[in-house]
Amino acid sequence: MAGRYTLYFGPQHPGAPGNVGFRLEMEGERVVRAELIPGFLHRGFEKMMENRKWENSYVLSYRFCVEDPDPFEVAYAEALDMVFKVDPPPKAKYFRMIQAEFSRIASHMFWTHFMLGSVGLRTPAYWALAAREEILKWFAWVTGHRIYHNFSVPGGIRSDVPQDFQSRTLDLTYRVEDLVKDVEKAVLGNRVFKRRTRGVGVIKGETALRLGATGPVVRGGGLAYDVRKLAPYERYDSVNFEVPVGEVGDAYDRALVRFREVHESLKIIRQAAMEVRPGGPYRVKIPLTAPPGRGYARVESARGEYTVHVTSVGGRSPYRVRFKSPSMPLLTTVLDYIIKNEEVTIADFPVVLASLDPCAPDIDR
Amino acid sequence: MVLSTIAEAVKYLFKRPYTRLVPAKTGPFKTDRMRGAHILDMSKCTGCSMCQQVCPANAIDMVEVPGQYPQNPRRRFPRIDLHRCTFCALCVEYCPFDALYMTSVTGFELYTRDKSTTLKSPVELSRGDYTLVTVKRDLYVTKEVKASG
């Protein structure tokens, strides 16, 4: 098809990253402009939380990202710890780390499925989902639910860990590692995958950071920006791990960084699991009414830096809850930059979108 | 090389299938802490409405039930809409009289196309299978330490 025309892409499209749409300005096969059409999943989470009490607002704090809910849960719990001026027991902090890292791995494995779907390499995608499934089973065993765990609460964690927690958690890390290695070998060494992703969606780390992006998009571009290292929360300062970075900043580098991050997360989980034993305190009781003040937390989610700001004026409910999520810049400023600076065809467009890994409900909330 | 993918795929070709045929071959996946449909102990509930207050999804309302309940003179018990419920177990955690439990009945076992059947009256809630109880209040409220701040 020649000439200039407009093409609507999503929200019902297998290549769209969730329920967001795009209005694409096309010139033949080339995408010259992409305008994001968000709002299909808007539910007003911030206001819903302000209309609920302290003890039940946290149930909503993570329900806007199916793929990676736990960093959001941990961040809100941390912000409320600051509002209530409580210091959770060390066991709770280590558990929150394990929870967030398993969530990161599960999210990256889910991303592998989307990414491989967009390049047409379906077989290893299902092995990645098997790794995610193992993690979800672990979550169901410890917390009672597979996706939304509701386990990190203000003041600590909700209940004690099961008796054989350490052995089962360590065992799971080795099983997941085996599956991830298979996927990695099958994907990163594949010639078709390399040709579809090398030199596609190039953005340097500094540029991405300037455009508001964080997470694997920045790290893939060669900048070691990670909140877990720069401003350690929970007990990230007491574990050893590396921040993997890419070189070129293309879709292949972002894939590489995500796979390496999975191995680093497994390293963190193995170290943190040694500090979480059954018995002993795990939760500090918080009062029903909060003192006036502010709570602020920033965590590194699978998609980048996520910030929560809670304002309390006393009383039974938060006065203001504000989230700053990592997904919005990915589909606006970063996508604009990529489309303006290289020739993105309609065939490459889903690959670029998937390599950025945005979370559509997180954009709308 | 594409061969690396093919080599890995051949390995998986000789492995057992990861997926299970539920419920024809195996039962649904359950754990000891699974949060599912509620059970109400009507001999313990005093009708204090704490569960209704704490429910983030507004899935609980208090209704009057005919009969004699010495601990609950107003005869008000929770009625739960499982269609709205998020199964967060806050009602179980905050019940001061340990009258609500959760069972492992969840997922497709609760699936229905008739949404009017998801509204469970107190009497229906009390008829649940006690052998399937997974979550009780004591899972959440023990071992708390006093606030340091």
Report on the architecture of this protein:
The complex is a heterodimer of chains A (365) and B (149). Chain A has 14 helices and nine strands. Chain A is of the alpha+beta class and 365 residues long. Chain A has one domain: Cytochrome-c3 Hydrogenase, chain B. In chain A, strand 2 and strand 3 form a beta hairpin. In chain A, helix 5 packs antiparallel against helix 6 and helix 11 runs parallel beside helix 13. The longest helix of chain A has 30 residues. Chain B has one domain: Alpha-Beta Plaits, CATH 3.30.70. Chain B contains five helices and seven strands. The chains are: A alpha+beta (365), B alpha+beta (149). At the A-B interface, helix 2, helix 5, helix 6 and strand 6 of A face helix 1, helix 3 and strand 7 of B.
Instruction: Tally the helices of chain B.
Output: 5
Termini gap of chain B: 59 Å
Query: Which architecture of chain A does the CATH hierarchy give at level 2?
Result: Orthogonal Bundle
Report the mean per-residue pLDDT of chain B as an integer: 85
What share of residues of chain A is helical? Answer: 40-55%
| Overall number of strands of chain B | 7
| CATH homologous superfamily grouping of chain A | Cytochrome-c3 Hydrogenase, chain B
Please identify the top-level CATH class of chain A.
Answer: Mainly Alpha
Chains forming the largest contact: A-B, 50 and 38 residues
**What multimeric state do the chains show?**
heterodimer
Largest sheet of chain A: 3 strands, antiparallel
Number of extended strands of chain A: 9
| H-E order of chain A | EEEHHHHHEEHHHHHHEEEEHHH
Per DSSP, what share of the residues of chain B sits in E-state strands of 2 or more residues?
A: 15-25%
Radius of gyration of chain A: 20 Å
CATH A-level architecture of chain B: 2-Layer Sandwich
State the shape of chain B. elongated
Spans of chain B of at least 5 consecutive residues whose pLDDT stays below 50 are none
The CATH topology of chain A comes to Cytochrome-c3 Hydrogenase, chain B
Provide the domain count of chain A. 1
Biggest sheet of chain B: strands, sense, closure? Answer: 3 strands, antiparallel
